[in-house]
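Hi Y.,

Following your request, here is the sequence exactly as I used it, all 442 residues.
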Amino acid sequence: MSAITEATIPPATPETAEGLKPLLEAIARLSGAPLSQIAQRLHQATLPYLRSSALVIFTEDCTGRPQKKSGDEAVISQVSIAELDAIRAALSGSETWHGRTPIGGRERPVLALPSPTKALLVLVDPQPVAGEAGAGISGGELPVPWLVRYLWTLAAERIREKVADAPPSYLIESRAASAERVRVTAELVDRHSTTLETLLAALRSPSLSDEVARKSATDVAAKALVELRTLNDRTTELVEEPVATAFQRLREDLRPLMHFSGIDVQFIEPPVNGRALPGEVAHAARAIVRGLVLAMVEQPDVRRIRTQWDCDGENLLINVRDDGLGSLSAEAPSIARLAQRVEVLDGRMTIDLMQGWGADVAVALPLDPPGRKLPDVAAWNLGDRELEVLQLLAAGQRNRAIAAKLHVSENTVKFHLRNIYRKLGATSRTEAIALAHSNGLR
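Below is the corresponding structure, written out as tokens. Let me know if you'd prefer a different format.
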């Protein structure tokens, strides 16, 4: 591992003010980036200060898609969670690490930076810009401009904020992606476990006389089996969070409010052996409680707020209660937004207002996705591309986002939508979405 030094940038002067314009524009684009484009915009923003062939963000806040990537397709299409975990382990508390390590299927030069949000940034084939040509991955020191650190911190905070305030369409899409990852990984584990266990049984057979060869093959197969099961466990960890861990993160989120508001926020711990929470449920639960506590704090004469989590095996049960005058408005926009988050996850929220005694809010969030009725694709007679467009439309995506996901133009999306409306007998976008939802497309 090579030493890391900070590259300094001279202060701006009137003569260099015009040169700051591209940087300020890059910061503005990054600050407003949607989750689907944040890696690409961060990559573009860092290139003037530190070149790299590919950029990978690894964040466990986005349970559906923990990797966000930009750059060389040969690299980003092959990056694995196991590789990113190994790079994170190499950091070991350091502010920056660079060296050669497996990424994208083979060993490459890598620069890794952590963040306060615990997300990880990986730059592949990093090279200084002109003026630092003598310093590289093999040249002893790699300057890391403070602007690269600043841009990465900004991007990491943007990811956390976007996930915390995720719209219904994102929660639906993220939960579907999480469920699909678990399903595919489970299938791989079953298939490869059977293969490896059969191999072990054969190699352990007393009919094989070459003891040395049998032992070597057994060791290799056993190691591969352990690695495969470890990968399955790691994937499960990314889409699930122990209920006690999720509740502790809620306490950390509310600690500043407890410190400055003067209100006694009490926490009733969930059972430590309660069922693990799907990532989307854990994120939504923390956001719901934060929103309820903030709404309750705004009421007069509130001195104490109690929040409690519990599990009944099928639902996360949330209860938040204050000791105010019972003036919490169930029709307030902030409460309506929270109710919408609950509805997206097929949950229930009830508000009991007791005049002079406070408000009591109960929320139940199912831990399993609801069963979805399969769409009657044959009856609709949709083509493969039309079905993809309709699925994205039903998930709340606009035409521009659909075009970006499918790598087509907006005009092409509009063309497919006209055909979809005709085949479904829909007269508007809203009607098409309603028909899709009623037939199980989300």
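The first helix runs from residue 21 to 31.

Thanks again,
Q.
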